[in-house]
Amino acid sequence: MAKFHQSHIKVRTHTLVEGLENPFTENRHRATYLAEKLVSFSRRRGDKLTRLQKLAILRFHNDKVYDLRDHIEYTDHKVLRAYIDLFDEFFFFGTLSFPCTFPFKHKRKDGKFGAVKPEYRWEKRFKVILYDRLPEENTRYKRLRGYVGTLLHEMIHAFFRLWACDYDECSYTRDGIGNRGSGHGRAWQDVAFALEKAVRDDKLLNLDLKLDREAAFALELFVDDRELVGMDFD
Ligand SMILES: [Zn+2]
Ligand SMILES: [Zn+2]
Q1: How far from each other are the two terminal CA atoms of the chain, in whole angstroms?
Q2: d(CA 155, ligand 2 centre) in Å
């Protein structure tokens, strides 16, 4: 966190539409401002799509790696790698791939499907971790649908942690990211709802993903921030 609070930065719509450079500055944007951008850009369709969104959709329609059905033979790892790029370009202005790593942990964690943790390698800032799925998700489609939903859920956390102002009163409010122990406040919820709707849109991705918004909301209400300060977001 910067030693003194610095003013919040806004980004020109043109910069976001062209997507030629990283439009955001680390921890310099108000959380609610970022949420508005993510929500409004997730609603773009047709001619209004950004340069990166058009590329992402083109790949989605032409590459079989995005097909989650049982008879397709790409490995989970390959599929998830492809979805990281798709989501980053379609929803996050291509701003997550560079500062994040995406390790897939082959272990189970009780009640946890994913997490965002600080990363201390090179210039990387965060790692977005996916844990193994439940045994009842016993077909390729069920398993991958679970992974991809968790991936998108965690990418929203990573986006806020990278670009939202890190001061409590600016971002870690009920209307913002929520408390630090959970991170599923109003801004996160608004984005999760909008992105879930966009992926389900049959004119867009037509994917029936779940971002676990209800469980996340319950967690936000019941965690005690004092107890959980410093814990990982999940
Ligand atoms: Zn601030
Ligand atoms: Zn979460």
Answers
A1: 21
A2: 9
